[in-house]
Each structure stands twice: as structure tokens, then as C-alpha cells.
From TrEMBL, chains A, B:
The gene is plsX. Gene3D superfamilies: Isopropylmalate Dehydrogenase (3.40.718.10). One of its GO terms (molecular function) is phosphate:acyl-[acyl carrier protein] acyltransferase activity. PANTHER family: FATTY ACID/PHOSPHOLIPID SYNTHESIS PROTEIN PLSX (PTHR30100), PHOSPHATE ACYLTRANSFERASE (PTHR30100:SF1). Catalyzes the reversible formation of acyl-phosphate (acyl-PO(4)) from acyl-[acyl-carrier-protein] (acyl-ACP). This enzyme utilizes acyl-ACP as fatty acyl donor, but not acyl-CoA. This is Phosphate acyltransferase.
Amino acid sequence: MTNASSVAADQPNLQARVTTPSRMKIALDAMGGDHGPAPCIEGALSAAQDFDVDVVLVGDEKVLADECRRLGSTDPRLSIKHAPQVVEMHESPATVARKKRDSSIWIATELVKNGEADAVVSPGNTGASMVASFFVLGLTKGVERPAIATSLPTLTGEAILLDVGANVDCTAQHLTQFAIMGNEYGKHLFRKPNPRVGLLSIGEEDSKGNEVTKEAFKILKGSALNFVGNVEGRDVYSGNADVVVCDGFIGNVALKISEGVAETIKKLLFKEISGSLLGRLAYPLIASPLRNLKRRIDYAEFGGAPLLGVNGITMICHGRSSAKAIKNAIRRAKGLAESRVDELIQRDIEESLAQSRLPEEPST
Amino acid sequence: MTNASSVAADQPNLQARVTTPSRMKIALDAMGGDHGPAPCIEGALSAAQDFDVDVVLVGDEKVLADECRRLGSTDPRLSIKHAPQVVEMHESPATVARKKRDSSIWIATELVKNGEADAVVSPGNTGASMVASFFVLGLTKGVERPAIATSLPTLTGEAILLDVGANVDCTAQHLTQFAIMGNEYGKHLFRKPNPRVGLLSIGEEDSKGNEVTKEAFKILKGSALNFVGNVEGRDVYSGNADVVVCDGFIGNVALKISEGVAETIKKLLFKEISGSLLGRLAYPLIASPLRNLKRRIDYAEFGGAPLLGVNGITMICHGRSSAKAIKNAIRRAKGLAESRVDELIQRDIEESLAQSRLPEEPST
């Protein structure tokens, strides 16, 4: 049922692109989210209209067609690609790789591999997105580990944090590659030629950190990146760095701790306000600023985190993504595909590997 | 100038206690905080009055005596012990151990070692507190690494997080010992016979984590602790566990990320509120609930984090501790000394080591 063009790519390591230059095409895993296909289709429709993008909804053809009808969608930029299987949230990446190659996430990723889409967006099981990208698209040449790069709100705008969960045990070399990949994403996202790259650590001084970060610090200090040194946890949100690098265990803890704190503050604030008569009287007056604040800190609204270091654009969204989050993720995926960030990463990684093979200059 | 009693302790590994059973005596490093001795002396005075505790102010005799006079303190429960040196915030633990053995933190710790005080409280350089405790008091028999155990506000009360910075590279065995130590602190703090002990990880499932946490999970599951399994970052603040265990790098990042999020939300909230006319009108009505909230989440108010695993009670406070935070830290230090938590930890660690030396039961 899809009418995606199908130019196959045989170039090794460089992803094929859809030939129609006029409009980017995004493959959306429309079955994976916690709230079913409705927010996906609503988000896709809104993205198609606002960003003039084609969206291939991947999933159960009947379910998706019914839902499109229910939502009154007749936009020709939306199409459907049938996928008979769905990956559930609890399924392990190994199960997905073995038994779910007809799932919506797998087939959506194959559309990118086959040049029938420019990027894949999924609000489903993160492990499934990763394993599909790993097997179907493959790792970028030279990249040892891919990384999930989320963006966080700061006092001054946004910052990128990576890795937030793809790799739990990392070496200094992995962190260095994350910095190179995050730098390319940062250049694209912030329209800055030299984003400030920091290393998440437990003190600003050069000597602070654990064994891995201390070694990574030395490598990054000698790199061509705009390395601003160690960044402490409290400074991630102050905007002192555009790109903050850490291993996936720490990044995931940091991200979820942040959600926990924001949620706790919200609940305590409501409790405090509703516990006082004046607070209750004031509530209608501050409801709107509070809603704005919630939107600002709720990362489900932010529109997905790319998996960097694979041959193509993969955007992973929160399972409970709203239509707005899906729309934002499509917008971001489109931008990454247009900028060919995956190819720029490949170039940078190759350059860095070539550099590391050069004989060291004698120290004077 | 101190009149602390001076019963020396020659018992190996068990800290001497002040003989006067009637009143606990706390040695306070009154020079180390960011705001000078004033908040220390105010906090000490208030603690002496409210908790009937003796406090030995350790630091420059003249400075402290002048400050006491300025504050009009004549409470006989406060005394001064002269220490000619001060450790600055930037000084490394190695420098402190080599060159600052006449500093307020070192001499305050010696008072505990010599039985002239029951606990030491310091709002100074954390590394200096650790190194002084390590050299002067010594590690508890059987403990491989000490741990700093902070407490965090949760939706239902408080939770203990350890380690938050004493050890950046930990083995599964270290994490297991942190769990044992945190359990004893939790029993004391929450008055619970079996606090729920969790392991900070990136998913609730048993299989989630990095190499070290996965190994620690297995050991903890087989232990006598009330182990509730993995705790995700977002659940630290929901109160699903009383004691949450992690390595000091991750714990420190988690703590500082939390501060960063809270600070950012506060600033964004004020911005949102002051940006709307209704918000500004409502502000006087919600100022008091906001202040309560701030107090609830500001860990400087919470009163210090003990260094567990040394022969004595050492309480480390934030450098920018207020008088109220110092007072709370003294109260908490007094409680830990009364409960002899350090000795209970020694007993538990010895039992766990004995247990691990037993031949394993054959699996059936």
C-alpha cells in the first residue's frame, strides 16, 4: 500500500536516500507507543501539514487505515506499509532480532535501508529500535558503539546528553566517539560551527572523575573538538555545554533522576499549594505558567533522541509520546536526514581514526 | 581551652566514647564552611539549646571567641578548641594529609579518636573530611571502602543514597558493603528493623544494569538484607526504597543532577510566574508554599551526610550550610553516636565476611 520510491543503495556504509529531492519521507513505527497508533497518526498528520514531509505509517494495515479514517485523514502525504507483527514493551532485543523481523519497527527500519524512507521514527521499545538499526542499517564504519543522544532543556535553551542508554559499560575510546558524534548532532541542532563539548564528571577540575572519564578527558583535550572540560551534574541544566558526554548507564540514571526530581517537585508543589487557602485561591492565576513549565521540562514533549553511529537516521521516542512529541520527532528526523548527519559522523570518525594512527609528535 | 574529657581508647577498631553518659559531645569544624564560622556557631548554639548537646568549636581560637561574643553566646555547652590551620575548599586530600594536620578538620577528628568527642561535623572540604577520618579514625575492620550516605526527600519521606562521592570506581563487593552500611544507617534513621534496600540501575528487571551492578544484584539477592532489587533513577524520589546503593561517581552525578533540575525548575517557575500579570498578582499567595517546597528539596537544609565505614561518627555537610543545616547535622551526628551505628556496621560487616567464608550449600 506504500508508494515509497524504492531506489536501492549498494554503497557500503553510506545510506541510500530517497530520490525525490522535493520531499523527505519518514517511516513511522505507528504501533509501538504506549497509547496505540492514534497519537502517531495525529502527529504524522500534523507534521505532514506543517513541515511538508511524507510519512509512511508502518504497522497493521487494517488498524492503521481504520484509525486514519476515524481521524478523517485524507492527506496524500501519509501512506501505510503493512507489518504483521508488533514488538511489546517488555520484549528483549534478542527476541526481537530472532523472532520479530516482521514487526513494525523492523520493517520501518528496512524502508530506510532500502532507500524507501529517509529516516525512521519509533515511540516503541528502545532496545528493539536499537537492535533493528544495528542489524538492518549497520554500524557506521569506524564506530565502535552507537549512542542515544537526548536533548534536555537548560536555562538558556537546550543541551545534548549522550549516551543515555545504548551502552552500559564504556571505555574512554567509546566516550571519545560519543563526543565526536554528539558534536555533529550539536552543530546541526544548534546551528553552531563549534558546539561546546563537555564530559560529565564529579568536579570541574581536570583531575576529577573515574578511571574511564579521566582517560577520556586526556583524549578529548587533545582533540579538535571545542572541549570545555568536565561538566558537573548541576551544570548540565545551566547550559555551560552544548553537548555532554557520558556512558549509557550514567546517562540513563541522570535522565531518569531528572524526571524523578521534576515529577516530585510538581507533586510537592501541588500539595503545598492545595494545602493553603491562599494557594488554592491563587491556583487559577498560576495554572498557565505551571503548564508552560511542565511542557518545558517534560522530555516526552521534546521529540525524540537519535541513535547516532548507524548508517541512517533513527529517532527513538518515549513510549508515552504525545501526538506533539511524535510531530517534533518527525521534524527533527527530517532535519537530521536533510543535513545527512550520519554521513558527517562517518567522515569525522574516519578522520579521528586516521589522526590516531599518525605517529605522535615528539613532546618538546 | 576545651574542657572535653579525655579518656583514651586503646580498643582496636572500636571507637572510644566520652565517659559522661549524660551529654553527647560533638566536635564541629567551625572554620571550613563557605560562609565562615558564623553559621557554625549559630547552628551549634541552637543545637546545644534544643538537643542538650555539648559542642566543641574547633578552629582559630581568637576568631571563634570573637564571633561567640558577637553572637552573645554564653552557653556553657559550647567550648573552643584551637586549631591554627584551615583547609581551603580547593586543597587536595593529599595536601591535607601531608601539610594540614593542625587544621580544624584534622584536630576535630582527633578529638573523636581520643574520646574527647562522640562525633565530628564538618561543612568544609569533603575530601579533607574523608582523609582525616581515614587516617585518624581508620577504616572499620573488614570495610574495604568508606561511603558517604546522603539523604534525599521523597514523596513519602526520605531515602538514603550511598555512595555519593567517596569512591569513583567500585566493585560489586564494594556495593554490597555499601548496602550493609546503608542498611544500618537506614535502621537508625527510619526506625525500621528492615529498611528496603535497592540498587540504582537502569531498569527494574533483574537483568538490567552494567557489569558491576549485575554482579552486585546477585550477591544482594542472596544476602540477609531486605533487598528490593533494582531501582530506576525516577524511583529514587518516589520512595520505593529506603536505601539506594550505587558507586560514588554515579551517586555524585545523581545528586548534582538533582540539584541542577531543582534549581532550573525554580528559576523557570519564577520566570514563568513573573512573566504573566496574573502570575505576579498570585505570587504573594504562593510565596509561602514555594518557600516550603524549596526547604523540602534543598539538601543544604537536610543536615549532612555521614561517612560510613570508619571507626567513629563523621558527618559531612555542604560547604554552604546554613545555621539550620549545621544544627540538623549536629542532631543527626548525636543520634548516630547514641545508636553507635559505626559499631553496628562493624558487627554486620564481620558477620557478612564470616558468612561468605562458609562453604556454599549444595544446590538441590
